[in-house]
Amino acid sequence: MPNHSTPWNAIFASQGLVFVEPHEDMPQLAEQISQGNAHTLLDLGCGSGRHVLYFGERGFDMYGIDSAPAGLAITRQRLEEAGLTAHLVQSDIFDALPFPDAFFDAILSVQVIHHARLAQIAALIDEMARILKVGGHIFVTVPQLQNQGTQFAQIEPGTYIPLDGIEAGLPHHYFTPEELRTLFKAFSILDIHLDRHQHYCLTAVKHSAPTAEVSR
């Protein structure tokens, strides 16, 4: 298993706080999951903590997992400065997730799960389904294939490795909406849309039976 922390740990160690502002869909997500009485929330690939703090400030029992110790150190410092607490775990998210079955009310992951080969991503999504309660929400953002301004080598259909830049050597999988629907078949998809960065945003619920997708 590759060490997914290597590029991003170096980025956090050299640049400090990265991605300060919460994703644009966070207010809507907070309102949506609050209506379902969600309390326990996981930020999968929490980095330097922007969403751990955002939801912690709104009263959620926050968990964050990331492979980069430098990012988690920044998150801890920010939590302390804000007078907040959260449960932080250092682990590669593409290993088995260290949480019990049906533990979380909601899971979010912003621009993280695409950093692997497709088989690893599919296994991670199965793990997300395992640790999420029935009726729980997920929110995930992933990139689509477009001009990335760097040189790539294709290693499998839809998956590329940058040959230069800060993420050189780290796999990147680029998605289509159809692929997202297939990968998240264990969930009832509520919405797939593009954000202002042209990343796909998927919101879904874990149900025992599928429901119709609503587009916007």
From TrEMBL:
Record's keyword annotation contains Transferase: yes
InterPro entries assigned: Methyltransf_11, SAM-dependent_MTases_sf
SUPFAM superfamilies xref list: S-adenosyl-L-methionine-dependent methyltransferases
GO function terms (MF aspect): S-adenosylmethionine-dependent methyltransferase activity
Keywords: Methyltransferase, Transferase
Domain Methyltransferase type: 42-140
GO biological processes: methylation
Name the UniProt record assigns to this protein: Class I SAM-dependent methyltransferase
